[in-house]
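Entry 12.
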Amino acid sequence: MDEQLFIADRTVLDGATDLMTRFGSDAAFEAAQRADSSRDRGNVVHFCRWRQVERLIVLLDGGFSVGSLH
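Predicted 3D structure (tokens):
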């Protein structure tokens, strides 16, 4: 993954942790569904937050290092 992940605030980390605990390997899919639902309701703030949660889950579940290694 070449892109850098922006984490807006603690709620993104809490959301990712909660979904990973509750849904395991389906956590990213659940975050994507929540983002789609928020978009369908016209809630752009929650849409963006759930997309950030989804990206963080994929990054954490990827099993690889990101960024520079020293």
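Annotation: The longest helix spans residues 44-61. The mean pLDDT is 89.
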